[in-house]
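Continuing the batch. This is chain 6 of the set; chains 1 through 5 are on the previous pages. Same settings as before, nothing changed between runs. Recording input and output for traceability.
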Amino acid sequence: MFEQLDKREEEVPHVSLAMTLGILAAYAVGMLAAFCMFIILEEKPFGIQIATAITYTYFAFWYVFFPTRGLLQQYSLRNKKVQRRIPLLLAIHCAFLIPIFVGETIWFSMKPNLPSYWFTEHGKRGAPWYVLVVMVSIVVVFFTQVLISRGILSRSLEEGLDESGN
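Output for chain 6:
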């Protein structure tokens, strides 16, 4: 029984402080760049959708390949098994990105027809409903893609271990 407990501790990947700080810096740079992009592209045709696509892609890359809280496994782009899965991951990414782009476009075209209370802040509740619906939808789609992509990568690495006997 105690041997199994020791074995589980060995299997948990360790994330160094340097990697944690590096990933935190990458997230901070990404958030700052996204903020600037949304401000710059806000009034351009399809500007919000383009900024969303770029930001979504940036963070999807970091969340899929690098460790995050609760998802400690990291996948090296130098690994041949991971490289073989990149075309599939790109196809999945496009499959998730297209509905976000189309959904935002439809949502923004509906904006003039929505009731005014969707756009006003109501006391201490925070952001208007309009903003919350868009953000929550994108976050749900994002984490669905991340979990699917990480599952594909982890299975491809496990299959490789079974074939080589390691």
